UniProtKB/TrEMBL annotation:
Function: Catalyzes the 2-thiolation of uridine at the wobble position (U34) of tRNA, leading to the formation of s(2)U34.
Protein name, entry field: tRNA-specific 2-thiouridylase MnmA
Class of enzymatic activity (EC top level): transferase
Domain tRNA-specific 2-thiouridylase MnmA-like C-terminal: 322-395
Top-rank lineage group of the source organism: Bacteria
GO cellular component, one term: cytoplasm
Amino acid sequence: MKRVVVGLSGGVDSSVTAYLLKEQGYDVIGLFMRNWNDASVTLEDECPWIEDSADALLVAEKLNIPFQVIDMSESYKERIVDYMFNEYEQGRTPNPDVLCNREIKFDLFLKTALDLGADYVATGHYARKTSTVDENGKEVFQLLKGTDNNKDQSYFLCQLSQEQLSKALFPIGDIEKPEVRKIALEQDLVTANKKDSQGLCFIGKVSLPEFLQQQLKPKEGIIVEVAKDWEGYKREIPTFENKYEALDFEAKGYSYKQEDAEVVGQHQGAHYFTRGQRKGLGVGGKVEPLFIIDTDVTENVIYSGQGVDHPGLLKKALFIKEEEVHWVREDLALNEDETMEVLARIRYRQPLQKATLHKAKSGMYVEFEEAQTAITEGQFCAWYVNDELLGSGVINN
């Protein structure tokens, strides 16, 4: 009998995952990961891990499977939280959920599971895994979108390797969310009607400004507004020697200076904000809502513009450094000067966009057919062909 360790999070998705695997004849063990100890930065009256671990225990008892809580808070702080602080300090916006899957669930948690004699680890992700055999007889694993388009979570798994995928199971990937809740109700699982978790991976609903202020000190600066008809948007496009220079020009976008804009407010630190953000600026009296179009953490200036159609929000290309290009399908990795037509997204839930990958010596350019809103440095761009996620990388404009 194959043994599988399920990451029981205390939610309905992982609960049904454990149930389905037991029904399929696996030897199932439930583990709850305690990744956070500091309740001072969660929202008032919420201490998510205590309630969640209690629910996970009740599910394990109902399913009659072994259960234990493992403390990974020290590793989580080092690998996820410290990384987040460092990225925000540099004016980048990280995605901790993608990192949590790569560094915690499918690395440290996976190693713990293997030490328990497991053949696989399973999570409640809405994603699918299949495999093919290459010409040399080697099994190649494929990461596919979840069947439920509204819940597809393949994006969060975009940094997994072939080795990690080989040990992963996603039992609810071909089930839609209402059916998952129906199964939980039929099995009388305590999590059946529990709301989906929000906030940081395994921390819960965190007050992000307070969280960041733990380590990043407030630093008062100005908010300036760049007009939609700013002269810089009428820049002449220079002549380029090759396509990579042209793509680099597009990926870098516009360079702003304080003298190009009107001071409209103040902030407590440019490193607390991100491109495309609308809330939290505290500037009113505008015809259209203000959006952040750029941040300068060196000068501590936030550049903003009115409306979702502001030119400063739109770009048609992005760049990923060579060392941050990751292929789930290593066998399909591009060589220098090769291109690939793909569908890509720059954030979770974004509809897939037509794009072309251009492999340069220095990294990867992703050129979109249509201009994208708020391409944000530090986030992950993931690319697909049909339903299969082939690779991803950290945006570095």
